[in-house]
UniProtKB/TrEMBL annotation:
Transmembrane segments: none annotated. It is found in: Cytoplasm. It comes from Saccharopolyspora halophila. This is Tetratricopeptide repeat protein. Belongs to the Rap family. SMART domains: TPR.
């Protein structure tokens, strides 16, 4: 696949922005275009870019206002495709905030609007959002088929960014199912395609997946090196959520290596990172890692039990079924 990755969410006058543009640059240009916009359609495109930059920077309130404003302007312009993109942004933000039912509703509406607007790319993004929402909740069997469908479509369309996303999603499912060889092969392919397509964000996520599996194979130092490489990209592009998940994986690698004091420090810092960007799933997963590290370092059994029960209830209430099972397994292993 020789095509270069594009950032399809940057619409209209902002379409020339690189997929690797820093979020500060995206926000600056989008604000300038928003101020100069003469039509609702122009404003919709600028506000969508503002919403996405703010979402990825963890500026949740402004992201919420901006995607809604983008949707209103797209509706005023009677542009169904632009409405689809705004709804996709809103659904992605809802998933990031742990509001999974709302995410599914908005992403479903986005897919419908994309069909009306004959925007195949927006439809693909909306369906990908639905697949990812189901996957993070632990519906691996149900979302695997949709991931594979989207992978086939992305390959056929020559869209490297979407190929990378789909490969990484399927790889995560295989990893959770225990098929580490398949998962590693898919993460490695995703990394190679992202590198060839100059998709630095996709490459950083692929490196995180490879590091996870490298750690599981008993190579912690190599895994930490891969995470450091991915971290550099996250910092350059200001990918706050990706950076926090990179750090959480660093904690996982250290924990598996028996370096519990180091893992505890990393998890503590990562909890703060997720809290700052209002990412409750990541924050709770980092907290789970922290409790496990503390247990390995001799924390009182009653305290560990209480915290693991609390996390299990929290994951269950949020509909994060796989994470709830992780908390249950931790109680079995540690207590």
């Amino acid at each position: 696949m020789n095509a270069k990755a594009v950032a399809a969410e940057y619409q209209g006058a902002l379409a020339a922005l690189s997929v690797n543009a820093s979020l500060d640059e995206v926000l600056e240009q989008a604000e300038r275009h928003d101020a100069a916009a003469a039509t609702p359609a122009e404003r919709a495109g600028a506000l969508l870019a503002i919403a996405e930059a703010c979402r990825r920077l963890g500026r949740i309130d402004r992201a919420e206002r901006s995607w809604r404003a983008a949707y209103r302007n797209a509706r005023d312009a009677e542009d169904a495709a632009a409405m689809a993109w705004a709804l996709w942004s809103g659904g992605t933000l809802a998933r990031q905030r742990g509001r999974y039912a709302l995410a599914r509703r908005l992403l479903g509406r986005a897919a419908d609007a994309a069909e009306r607007g004959a925007d195949r790319m927006a439809r693909g993004y909306a369906l990908a959002g639905l697949a990812e929402t189901g996957r993070v909740q632990g519906d691996f069997a149900g979302t695997l088929r949709l991931h594979e469908q989207l992978l086939a479509e992305a390959r056929a369309d020559g869209q490297p960014r979407h190929v990378v996303w789909a490969l990484e999603g399927i790889a995560q499912i295989h990893r959770h199912a225990g098929d580490h060889d398949t998962a590693l092969a898919m993460f490695t392919e995703a990394r190679d395609i992202a590198t060839e397509g100059d998709d630095q964000r996709g490459r950083a996520w692929a490196l995180r997946g490879i590091a996870d599996l490298t750690s599981l194979r008993g190579e912690p130092d190599r895994a930490l090196g891969l995470l450091t490489e991915g971290e550099e990209t996250c910092r350059e592009m200001r990918l706050e959520a990706a950076l926090a998940y990179n750090h959480k994986m660093r904690g996982n690698v250290l924990y598996r290596a028996g370096r519990y004091a180091e893992a505890e420090r990393v998890y503590r810092a990562t909890i703060e990172e997720f809290t700052e960007i209002a990412e409750p799933r990541g924050e709770a997963l980092a907290r789970l890692g922290l409790v496990k590290s503390q247990a390995r370092r001799g924390a009182p059994t009653a305290q560990v039990d209480e915290e693991l029960r609390s996390l299990h209830a929290r994951f269950t209430e949020a509909g994060l079924h796989h994470a709830a099972e992780m908390a249950r397994t931790a109680r079995t292993e540690l207590l």
